[in-house]
Write a sequence for this structure.
């Protein structure tokens, strides 16, 4: 009887340890999954401005193109460049330049619809991907962006007396089969180039 009692007690302790081990494994698995999700999120985010990065934009654009081709829907794209940003950096310093880029990114994001994606494309260049968006919708969004950035006060931009403007190229079309993000960006970049040469802002 004593031997049976000891075996039963041992088995009860073993089951308790197994339950504890399962709970611990589940907790650690959840922590690892959460950490991996955060790492993925960080890999898609521009560390300076907090908006999406180029990698995220290109992946989202390629996925949106595939969907748009299948459903014959337009994709809108805005490519934005901060006017005379090199001169701004030279005059106010790179720290003020960083502050200005963060402020511009927030202004751009605040002008968009919930489903749109604003990304820092590189340096002082940004892009906005707009699904199911006609050229009128895209152009109105670009104009909101332009007006919001132009209205940013100097202190918000990291200096005492200078404002900032942007130039933008816009595009909207139903993509053709075989189109990629780079094709849409090339078309929109041509429009940005024209905006720069026609007076900026």
């Amino acid at each position: 009887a004593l031997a049976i009692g000891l075996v039963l007690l041992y088995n009860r302790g073993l089951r308790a340890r197994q339950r504890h081990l399962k709970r611990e494994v589940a907790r650690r698995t959840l922590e690892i999954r959460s950490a991996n999700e955060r790492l993925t999120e960080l890999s898609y985010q521009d560390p300076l401005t907090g908006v999406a990065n180029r990698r995220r934009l290109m992946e989202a654009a390629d996925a949106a193109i595939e969907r748009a081709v299948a459903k014959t829907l337009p994709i809108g794209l805005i490519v934005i460049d901060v006017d005379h940003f090199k001169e701004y950096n030279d005059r106010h310093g790179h720290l003020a330049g960083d502050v200005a880029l963060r402020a511009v990114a927030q202004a751009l994001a605040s002008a968009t619809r919930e489903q749109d994606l604003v990304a820092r494309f590189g340096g002082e260049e940004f892009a906005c991907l707009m699904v199911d968006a006609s050229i009128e919708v895209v152009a109105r969004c670009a104009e909101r962006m332009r007006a919001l950035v132009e209205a940013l006060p100097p202190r918000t931009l990291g200096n005492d007396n200078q404002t900032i403007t942007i130039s933008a190229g816009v595009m909207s079309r139903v993509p053709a089969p075989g189109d990629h993000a780079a094709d849409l960006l090339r078309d929109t970049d041509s429009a940005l180039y024209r905006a720069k040469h026609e007076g900026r802002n």
Observations:
- The longest strand covers residues 75-82.
